[in-house]
Amino acid sequence: MRMLGIETSCDETSAAVVEETGDAAKPWAIRSNVIASQVPIHREWGGVVPELASRQHIRDICGVVARALAEAETRWHDLGAIAVTQGPGLVGSLLVGVSFAKAAAAASGLPLVAVHHLAGHIESLVLHNGELPLPSVILVVSGGHTSLYLVERRGSYQTLSRTRDDAAGEAYDKVAKLLGLGYPGGPAIDRLAKSGNDRAIALPTTRLTHADRNAPELKGDLDFSFSGLKTAVARHVQGREGVSTQDIADIAASFQRVVVTALIDRLFVAARRYQAASVGIAGGVSANSRLRAELMDRSERRELPAFLPSLSLSTDNAAMIAAAGLRAFRAGVTAPMDLNADAALPLG
Ligand code: KG4
Ligand code: ZN
Predict the structure, then answer these.
(1) 347 DSSP assignment
(2) Peptide bond before residue 27 is cis, with ω within 30 degrees of 0
(3) Contact 270/160 with Cβ under 8 angstroms?
(4) CA–CA separation, 11 and 94 (whole Å)
């Protein structure tokens, strides 16, 4: 069976066709994965402007879907269902994908499947590597989220922790803006950090020991917090006269060391606590070179298998949504035609 996937939660318009392989260990193959990035539009404003994003999705969606079908040599009647990101994300952006998918499902008679954006990111690990050994602890780290999930059964996710304030990608974007590096900040800091001294400046690491008042069921010590770190970088930059290129590289490297250490440490503490058979990192920040290297290094030392998506599957794309849609569809899940976008959709 082939699934059409549609993703419009933030600033990429994406459509993909993913097909079942019949191989239980590596269940899906990508036939096409078309991504129209809006980065050049938002760069001018230093971040994603929701109103501009939704308008651009409207311009791009028909062409992106047509190209995804053409590249996959797939006609509408070759498809088994249509999967779409229902949330979380920017509501105006989500609505474009959801409306398109509902209209396409109504016109073609195909079933509709609603997908959680983060379930999509988690599925990018399976798309690239095949099924993960379970139980698995997965870190989803993107522009909007930084959370740990326990996967005990395929397709079911238990939240172990989350960020109390900024997401890691958001911290990258804000610090890059402070340093005058433009949008998106993650790739720019990652590049510059390579020529910087990661011990040049002392930046604080936040360790949380108490439960979150808003989520008392979680113990809290696996939670993340990045807003203090961002403020410390701002103070450091403001307290200086001129900032040289080398200073900027040093700040980027020092910032990146603190973020990556916080992410990897919590992931492996959780892995031990829940006796994980594997760990994985997904989401836009999983493209980070230091995070990838430290994950593999720690995984070897702990003799615990670790998984990453390919670079092109790390950031937002519709192939991961189609894959998560296939998993849900095979579990008997479809969406009604009055499906609505949900900007704050919970996972699990
Ligand atoms: O998953 P994603 O494409 O969109 C969301 O769902 O948020 O993630 C985008 C985030 C941005 O904050 C971007 O700066 C960050 O991922 N990112 C990176 C890198 N590439 C993208 N952060 C650190 N290092 C990178 N190489
Ligand atoms: Zn994402």
Answers:
(1) P
(2) no
(3) yes
(4) 10
Q: Are 18 and 326 in contact (CB under 8 A)?
A: yes
- For residue 298, what are the CA distances in angstroms to 179, 263, 294? 30, 12, 6
User: Which atom of ligand 1 lies closest to the CA of 142?
Assistant: 8
Residue 167 beta carbon below 6 angstroms from any ligand 1 atom: no
The ligand 1 atom at the shortest distance from the C-alpha of residue 167 is: 12
Asked if residue 120 has its Cβ within 6 Å of ligand 1, the reply is: no
- Would you say 36 and 47 are in contact if contact means Cβ atoms under 8 Å apart? no
Identify which ligand lies nearest to the alpha carbon of 143: 1
pTM above 0.85, yes or no: yes
Ligand 1 mean position to 170 CA, how many Å? Answer: 8
DSSP labels, 224-247: B--HHHHHHHHHHHHT-S---HHH
Helices 245-273 and 227-238: angle between axes, nearest 10 degrees:
160
- At residue 213, the pLDDT reads 74
SS3 86: strand
Sheet of 136-141, strands arranged across = 158-162, 146-151, 136-141, 278-282, 306-307
Q: Which two tokens stand for residue 2?
A: 């082939």
Rounded Cα distance, 170 and 185, in Å: 8
Ligand 1 contacts CB of residue 316 (under 6 A): yes
Burial of 197 (0-12, 13-18, 19+ CB in 10 A): middle
Q: Kindly report, residue by residue over 173-201, the tens digit of the pLDDT.
A: 999 999 999 889 999 999 999 999 999 99
Closest atom of ligand 1 to 11 CA is 4
How much is the mean pLDDT over the chain? 95
Give me the helix-helix angle, 91-108 and 50-71, nearest 10°: 30
